[in-house]
């Protein structure tokens, strides 16, 4: 073997050109293999699932360690992930689908279609399968937004992407393309023509070559529906004094949603109300607050210029929110005089504190402060972030602290509580992805997530218990109630802050409520990250907090916290 190796070396020393030629060919072959594996391989994901906090008492038993665990400013975060999953971008999409059709796997198409039906039955809660439809690259069947992922496309991912943007339909094509829309503008075809497996979900069907597998989405909130850039607000009864409630009116014999929304946008009004053949524009006010929605059937009169959309009637209006910003609640400043009391906006991390600050600033017109300093929040408009928390120039102070000394430094507090299952996931996303980003799948599947739950779940309970025990004047607000009835809950919060706010300003906040601090649904997890042991642990903490709230004659935790 050694003799052969020496001959090999002597051969290439005499003919260096051959050596470099051989080296180039070797590197080229290696590069081709690497590129090929990047297109067809799946990223390796660690399956390590550490056992969550052990030794949790049975249901109904006391949790003596809760009172001793105070994790706040000095809490030590878990280490960074040891590995990050490879990211795959969408491929180039040509003008026609012929080349892409070659990428599909047609073997066993009928058996895959049968398997896909099983998956569709599981999807019934969030979407209903409509059928297989023809799709034309020159005239799309679904004409809303679209996105492609030739590595990890799944049915859920497409549905969630479209539902988050308020579309009624989601369609999958070529196993990797997702299209959204409010109506299907194509003909139905045989089920056998939708025969391509989803790139990220084996056994499920994601359309075919120029064929869409279409689902009708069951939206969690109808108000999330959109028409282009306009947000659907609902069907509402005609206000008593129409000219004062909606000051701009225009007759539109050939009414369509586009025409009315465009008119109100041009006139710089945030609301467009369709009333049959008339378009009205205005602001949400006490005369037209958009709080009492009517059955959509009362507004179900088809638009004269648009077959598939409703344009309301003279008595019941279909209302859309335009892209015009309602500036009645956008002015903010520091307090004109130093505040005589320090009021905390206290919450466990991931419970919506940043969102609550956004709402409070819009409602009161004053900046909120922070016990910490976050440069990214300062750059996004939270100017009180840079002030010392004792400066007295801000209306309230964000804090995640727990413990007697830290809590007693405040004269009063708004305590924001959120479902721990949601709060833990939100904080984990923030920790590894930023304020509106997402943790990578490698973090969820690796050791970081079990370790995070083990450390943070008990803190969720002790945080609330400490504020209830040591807080001087505590107003408890549940995050879920704030989302469901923002007008009432925000009014309670502003009342504690001692600021007189006009009702019209609160209505303005409702229309601007999301701000820039809402995560898109595009990268939501497609599985439940909580193991049975984690759920048992967290359920015990929920019961402790629920008992503590009720013991102080307060409303217990919302019903959707459990069972899980």
Query: What's the architecture of the largest domain in CATH terms?
Result: 3-Layer(aba) Sandwich
| Main β-sheet description | 6 strands, antiparallel
Q: Looking at CATH, which topology of the largest domain would you report? A: Rossmann fold
Number of DSSP strand runs:
21
The radius of gyration is 29 Å
The strand line-up of the biggest sheet is 2-4-3-8-1-5
Write out the CATH superfamily name of the largest domain: P-loop containing nucleotide triphosphate hydrolases
How many separate helices? 17
C-alpha end-to-end distance: 66 Å
**Regions with little confidence, pLDDT below 50 for 5+ residues:** 35-124
Averaging pLDDT over every residue, what do you get? Answer: 79
Structural class of the secondary elements? Answer: alpha+beta
Helix content: 25-40%
Return the domain count.
Answer: 3
Global outline? globular
Strand content: 15-25%
For this structure, what is the CATH class of the largest domain? Answer: Alpha Beta
GO cellular component, one term: Golgi membrane
Family: Belongs to the WSCD family.
Keywords: Repeat
Protein name: WSC domain containing 2
Write the layout of secondary structure elements.
Elements: H1 2-14, H2 16-40, H3 98-103, H4 109-122, E1 127-134, E2 146-148, H5 155-164, E3 169-173, E4 177-181, E5 188-189, E6 197-198, E7 201-205, E8 211-217, E9 226-227, E10 230-237, H6 242-245, E11 248-251, H7 257-266, E12 271-275, E13 278-282, E14 302-303, E15 306-310, E16 316-321, E17 343-347, H8 353-364, E18 369-370, H9 375-379, E19 397-399, H10 404-407, E20 412-417, H11 420-433, H12 441-445, H13 448-470, E21 474-478, H14 479-484, H15 486-497, H16 503-511, H17 532-551
Parallel strand pairs: 17-19, 17-20, 18-19, 20-21
Antiparallel strand pairs: 1-5, 1-8, 2-4, 3-4, 3-8, 6-7, 9-10, 10-16, 11-13, 12-13, 12-16, 14-15
């Amino acid at each position: 073997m050694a003799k052969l190796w020496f001959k090999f070396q002597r051969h290439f020393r005499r003919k260096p050109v051959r050596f470099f030629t051989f080296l180039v060919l070797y590197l080229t072959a290696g590069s081709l293999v690497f590129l090929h594996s990047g297109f067809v391989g799946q990223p390796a994901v660690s399956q390590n699932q550490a056992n969550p906090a052990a030794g949790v008492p049975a249901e109904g038993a006391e949790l003596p360690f809760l009172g001793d665990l105070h994790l706040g400013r000095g809490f030590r975060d878990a280490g960074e992930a040891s590995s990050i999953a490879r990211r795959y971008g969408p491929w180039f999409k040509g003008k026609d689908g012929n080349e892409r059709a070659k990428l599909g796997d047609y073997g066993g198409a009928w058996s895959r279609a049968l398997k896909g039906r099983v998956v569709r039955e599981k999807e019934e809660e969030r979407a209903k399968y409509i059928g297989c439809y023809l799709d034309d690259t020159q005239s799309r069947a679904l004409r809303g937004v679209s996105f492609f992922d030739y590595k990890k496309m799944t049915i859920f991912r497409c549905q969630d992407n479209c539902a988050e943007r308020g579309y009624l339909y989601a369609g999958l094509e070529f196993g990797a393309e997702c299209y959204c829309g409010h109506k299907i503008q194509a003909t139905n075809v045989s089920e056998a023509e939708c025969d391509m497996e989803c790139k990220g979900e084996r056994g499920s069907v994601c359309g075919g070559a120029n064929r869409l597998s279409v689902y009708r989405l069951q939206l969690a909130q109808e108000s999330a529906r959109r028409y282009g850039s306009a947000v659907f607000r609902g069907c509402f009864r005609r206000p008593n004094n129409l000219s004062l409630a909606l000051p701009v009116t225009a007759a539109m014999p050939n009414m369509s949603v586009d025409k009315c929304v465009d008119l109100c946008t041009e006139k710089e009004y945030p609301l467009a109300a369709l009333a049959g053949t008339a378009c009205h524009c205005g602001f949400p006010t006490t005369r037209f607050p958009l709080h009492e929605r009517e059955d959509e059937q009362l507004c179900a009169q088809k638009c004269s210029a648009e077959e598939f959309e409703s344009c309301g009637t003279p008595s019941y209006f279909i209302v859309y929110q335009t892209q015009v910003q309602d500036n009645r609640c956008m002015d903010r400043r520091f307090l004109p005089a130093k505040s005589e009391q320090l009021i905390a906006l206290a919450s466990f991390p991931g419970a919506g504190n940043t969102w609550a600050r956004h709402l409070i600033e819009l409602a009161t017109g004053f900046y909120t402060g922070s016990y910490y300093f976050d440069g990214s929040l300062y750059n996004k408009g939270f100017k009180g972030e840079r002030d010392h928390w004792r400066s007295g120039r801000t209306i309230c102070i964000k804090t995640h602290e727990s413990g007697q000394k830290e809590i007693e430094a405040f004269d009063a507090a708004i305590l924001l509580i959120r479902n721990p299952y949601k709060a833990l996931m939100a904080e984990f996303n923030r920790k590894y992805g930023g304020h509106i980003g997402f943790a990578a799948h490698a973090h969820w599947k690796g050791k970081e997530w079990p370790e995070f739950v083990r450390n943070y779940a008990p803190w969720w309970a002790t945080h609330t218990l400490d504020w209830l025990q040591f807080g001087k004047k505590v107003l408890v607000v549940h995050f879920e109630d704030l989302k469901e009835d923002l007008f009432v809950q925000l009014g309670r919060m502003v009342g504690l802050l001692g600021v007189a706010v006009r009702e019209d300003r609160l209505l303005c906040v409702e229309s601007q409520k999301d701000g820039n601090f809402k995560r898109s649904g595009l990268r939501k997890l497609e599985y439940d990250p909580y193991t049975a042991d984690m759920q048992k642990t967290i359920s015990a903490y929920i019961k402790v907090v629920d008992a503590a709230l009720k013991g102080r004659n307060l409303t217990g935790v919302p019903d959707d916290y459990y069972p899980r």
